[in-house]
Amino acid sequence: MNGNVVDIKDRSKKTGRIVAGVAAGIAAIIVVFSSAAVVPTGSTGVITTFGKVSEDTYSEGFHLKIPIAQQMVIISNKIQVYETDASAVSSDLQTVNSKIAINYRVKADSSASIYKNIGPDYQAVILTPAAQESMKSVTARYTAEHLITQRNTVGEEIKEMLEAKVSEYGIQIEKFNIINFDFSQEFNAAIEQKQVAEQNKLRAQTEKEQKIIEAQADAEKVKLAAEAQAESIKTKAAAQAEANKTIAESLSKELIQYQTIEKWDGVMPKVASSASPLLMIDTEDETESADK
Predict the structure, then answer these.
(1) Which domain, by its residues, includes 61?
(2) Residues 31 and 100 in one domain
């Protein structure tokens, strides 16, 4: 009887030792795992010791920390995209509803400060109000029409103002985009009418310029034709004058008498005078022939 009791006690002791060993092993495993810390690529590990944020941070890779006492919070330093709607008023009192996109990142050396002073929701606490305020401030400098025509300039000014507001917290603005502007229906209709009027004006101006070009071309053609005709008349006149000169130089007294005799029909004129004789005969030659 006593032997059985002893055996039972021995078994109980052995079981207790086994359970204690297993528990110790599990505890050791828990301690080992809880002391390991891995910081992913593009992030910073912020260490808290019993809730107090440490100024020292962990960079990418494997690290050890004090189990239970220390906790690690991962702060991403990669570029993040934040999109939001923004409402503002232009200098000509037009309501402007916009959609903006901000590419930003948290600086690695500011990760602990941001977590300590702002917390993990830094986007809502810092970035959102700064973006809204910058949008309103810059938009108020421009008319609604200039917001459209100078969109890139407006975007750069908003980015510069936004950077000045958030850089002190350790947030860096990489890029700022105005995705779209939206105005009232009345303003959109007015812009459309103005664009149509400008297009019609441009079309009319183009047509006018085309008509002027065509008129100038026609005038040039007329001018060239007139010059060509004048040159032709001049050439013909010069040729005629040259011909007349040649004819005049070739005429002689004998040739004229011969042509006169050739054209005479043999009928003596009823009226004749020395001023306009129809037939001229050299009497000196005839007298000499008669004497011979």
Answers:
(1) 2-75
(2) no
